[in-house]
Amino acid sequence: MSQTLAMLQPLDLGFCQLKNRVVMGSMHTGLEEEKHGFDKLAVFYRERVEGGVGLIVTGGISPNFRGRLTPGATQLSFPWQVGKHRIVTDAVHQAGGKICMQLLHAGRYGYHPFSLAPSAIKSPITPFTPKAMSLRQIKGTIKDFARSAALAKKAGYDGVEVMGSEGYLINQFICTRTNQRDDQYGGSFEKRIQFALDVVAAIRARVGAEFIIIFRLSMLDLVDNGSNWTEVVALAKALETTGVNLINTGIGWHEARIPTIATSVPRAAFSWVTEKLRREVSIPLIATNRINMPEVIEHILQSGQADMVSMARPLLADPQFVNKAAAGHDALINTCIGCNQACLDHTFKLQRATCLVNPRAVYETEINFTPVTKAKSLAVVGAGPAGLAFAVYAAERGHRVTLFEANGEIGGQLNFAKNIPGKEEFNETLRYFRAQLDQHNVDVRLNCEFSSKDASGFDEVIIATGVRPRQLDIEGINHPKVMSYQALLSGQQQAGSSVAIIGAGGIGVDVAHFLAERTSATLVPEKWYARWGIDTQYQHRGGLVDALETEQPSEPRELYLLQRKPTPIGKGLGKTTGWIHRAMLKLHHVKQLVGVEYKKVDDDGLHIVHQGQAKLLPVDTVVICAGQESNGQLADELIAAGIAVHLIGGVKIAAELDAKRAIRDAALLAAAI
What we know:
The protein is of the alpha/beta class. 30% of the residues lie in helices and 18% in strands. Helix 3 runs parallel beside helix 6 and helix 17 runs parallel beside helix 19.
């Protein structure tokens, strides 16, 4: 089968050959700044090479101090900095791989008061106004890029990727949005792209012909006053002439209010623009964004949309992705679900990145599932995220694992999450766990209640029974129109045409989206493009057209989302995805009320007090999303009986539903037990 996969075909760059068409795209891990972090980074990258990746691109490294993203971020500017990079390149080469260092100058995105940009225009996502670069500073920065590339070559890198997209410095020079200069680097399009061309030319002059230069080109800015298609093509052709070997696809500036990599983005949603550019240049192009399964890669490559594909988060999720695809074991791939909760959300909080579905990611030297010398017989109670992860990891180590689940299917809360529009990727997580349970011979017992009498014969019992919805103590809580979010999302009960949702945390927001949009736009790309105002005909600057102000709901409903706290709804949602959820509430005209006191439910609806006034919401359905409680009765029973137990996941801490913490809990226990 492997011979038929386009992703496994080599790519000849003339002076070197890449073993296949899969690039591990740039992702900052946080190890770059940790003490001894490059030792850990070497292990991290080596595992991906051993897993089959053809080419790795590192996280962004600044060519000078002012280009750093944060004051403590890594740069490569001096010979004494070469040594730690050599640790990484040696590890990659020993494993038979190739690696390029990404050169990234933050420009006005620098999160410090020393930032420089083409013009002194503050970005909407950083607190500092940059200083406009002098001509001397521009010339110096070009030299710094070249010096850094030369040092990268000395450190053993096979090439560099020049970050010219996502709204960083080079991208800032290209667009009138951020470049209001009137000298040789501003004004006309030809002058605005001169900085990018000078950087590439200076790098090529320093590193010679036999060194890979990738240019990350912003093919679709998705911001006002971005590049138009004619300009994108002209720059791509100029870059090819200047000496670039590969062009990587950049999509959207960081300040763009259009999602580009979140789970609600359709798979391969932007490969059309790579295909469009591929007709214009002769050097290989790399497609990016929401490419997370082998069939997606194969479609892109076999249909001629791109020459290579870049994946970052999917290779966090499963370092063995390529090997599994080559062996035809797609079902065993731990698929990236695009949640951003443990990777990008961590990065933007200056924490070490990892992965919700793979807590070993970026912790390869700290979390390992080594074979046991003496196998134990373990009972795992509950087949939600924590129970599933523990069962797989413990069985992988060689323990004999029996997994008990009271319901008729595995998955726990994942079975509710997968039904939310835009969260369909959780189906892949469930598929992965089913395959892994079978692969590791876990004895799965569904529809099986576990009690203390079942504990005999097991060395230890792991309780992963999760949570149950918290009940509200208000009059009429047992009225027929009241239901839990679990009953709604599982299909046990149906909502009417007017719904009050009590609780506006992550679950409440998801329920509102579920009720407003039963046909997911994620599965209908044309609908998704129209929703966000993406011009797939590319007739407008930045690839933008007017986004929809509202959508006709799949099932017209009047929706109220209610919160006790007076703070804005959605404040506690994910740092990189919360704004998307808030935009969906607005799009679907969900009425949002905060500072609400709940009084009673009766035939007339839900009685509340809002802003000191008694109000009646005349709804026919009330959905309770008011938090969770630990489902811990069994644990109490077993402990009382003197049985050795371990608690993981929601049963241990019944806060906001948190699959990231649940799976990490499971991994840590499985590695130690």
